[in-house]
# Entry
Amino acid sequence: MDDIAKGMSISKRTLYLIFPTKESLLTSCINESREKQRAEMAKIDKEANGDAIKIIVGLLHLQMEKFSKLNPVLYEDIQKYPAILKKIESEDKEQEKRILAFFKRGVAQGVFRKNLNYKIVVEHLRMQSRGIMDYKMYMRYEMVDIIRSMSMVALRGLLTNKGLEIYKANS
# Structure
């Protein structure tokens, strides 16, 4: 809290008037970040006009930008607050429905493979994201490089030949 107050050029007392606990501050930051991300994702979807490849390219750029600015200490701090973790898990389950609908759209467009169980794919991607933080890969590599490398491995397995060609042309 000292560093945050100093960074905002306010007293720690003023900060505690706004956020009585570190948990309330974290909750507010997460809520704001997730709301901003939802708005950015909606914008990407609208601009892509439903094109699954354009959406995936936009989302990858969004993720790389987000993770390049993310301080890994935030992830470590969040682990200390079960209520925050429960809220994130609940929101992740809601987001899973949107992701599955996205994959279904990509299959219909012929750019994602139709012979995959996308519930397993989504769960794998979630585990992969947690693994980045749990194994502290961010201590050894730049987050942008981690996201780019892991995304490319995942995409190569998900895309059809048609999807891969369109992806190459759009990225």
